[in-house]
Amino acid sequence: MANKWVLNSTEVPLSFLFCQLVIAVLLFLVAHVTGLIKLPLEFDLQVCKGLIPMVGLNVIGLSFSNYTLAYVDASFYQVARGMVLPFTVFTSYVFLHARPSLAVLMACSVVTFGFFIGVFLDGTPVSLVGVSFGVASSMITAVHSVVIKKSLEVVKGSALHLSWYTNLLSSVALIPVIILAGELPKTLALLFGDLPSLPDEMSPLATFLWGSAITGALGFLMSIASLLSIKVTSPITHMVSSAVRGVAASLLGMWLFHDVITTGRASSIATILVGSIYYTWVKHLESQAPKHTNGSAQYDRVPLEEVEAGRGGKPE
């Protein structure tokens, strides 16, 4: 919601993202100096090389996410990115060899149907550019969540160190992207110009600065929480929690920004939520199912994270 507040008043989504990342890096350093956490401040070229896919996907995914939010209503944002779960199941199958069951495919079909309801069957005009960015963002997010699993190996399994490196390297990598996207003149005009503001409202610069501070701090906490979520569960379980959170965000969009949620849009959100809940229930049942070993009567319970990561072997 804070992101949408800023993007409604400014036209610099990439510069806004850069400020968020810089604030997160500064908070990491403050926590390190005060002794709350311990960060690897030395420059490790091998670690940086190993995290290139992670950083690249992070920059592209966050950029597309901000562009999506800039073009669509806050309440429609999660519909535009509603394909995250199906894409994540697909990428988990490709990269982690996690073969989905028929019930999982059914859940993905329900989520996909919900996406099509909101985009094509609602009748409310939507930005095709925003939807396109949303679909692209969903694909990047799905691959990104799988790459996180691999990237944790580069930092010896430390989600905290991974979040530190990701925010630091992403902020550096975003600088040439801002220049190439042509945002630099708009950013300079925002910082040093005298852009008009509506009566009784914050100026665009004040909105940008306050929004950056708020979202930067929250982003710092959320990046750690998201990485820990994936570390202790699985990429797909993490995506389910994000989908449910997104429905709540849609309701907040209606309350804070007076977005109009039509019957079709509400049906789309509800269908996506039902598909996500059904998926969660299916995965729970699959994790509890007994595993037959070598044709004998012995059964083993396979941990949920092993099932979802496609490693169905006998647990140690």
Automatic annotation (TrEMBL):
<feature type="transmembrane region" description="Helical">
    <location>
        <begin position="159"/>
        <end position="182"/>
    </location>
</feature>
<dbReference type="InterPro" id="IPR050186">
    <property type="entry name" value="TPT_transporter"/>
</dbReference>
<feature type="domain" description="Sugar phosphate transporter">
    <location>
        <begin position="2"/>
        <end position="279"/>
    </location>
</feature>
<feature type="transmembrane region" description="Helical">
    <location>
        <begin position="103"/>
        <end position="121"/>
    </location>
</feature>
<keyword id="KW-0472">Membrane</keyword>
<feature type="transmembrane region" description="Helical">
    <location>
        <begin position="127"/>
        <end position="147"/>
    </location>
</feature>
<feature type="transmembrane region" description="Helical">
    <location>
        <begin position="12"/>
        <end position="39"/>
    </location>
</feature>
<keyword id="KW-0812">Transmembrane</keyword>
<dbReference type="InterPro" id="IPR037185">
    <property type="entry name" value="EmrE-like"/>
</dbReference>
<feature type="transmembrane region" description="Helical">
    <location>
        <begin position="51"/>
        <end position="70"/>
    </location>
</feature>
<protein>
    <recommendedName>
        <fullName>Sugar phosphate transporter domain-containing protein</fullName>
    </recommendedName>
</protein>
<dbReference type="InterPro" id="IPR004853">
    <property type="entry name" value="Sugar_P_trans_dom"/>
</dbReference>
<dbReference type="Pfam" id="PF03151">
    <property type="entry name" value="TPT"/>
</dbReference>
<feature type="compositionally biased region" description="Basic and acidic residues">
    <location>
        <begin position="302"/>
        <end position="316"/>
    </location>
</feature>
<feature type="region of interest" description="Disordered">
    <location>
        <begin position="291"/>
        <end position="316"/>
    </location>
</feature>
<keyword id="KW-1133">Transmembrane helix</keyword>
<feature type="transmembrane region" description="Helical">
    <location>
        <begin position="202"/>
        <end position="228"/>
    </location>
</feature>
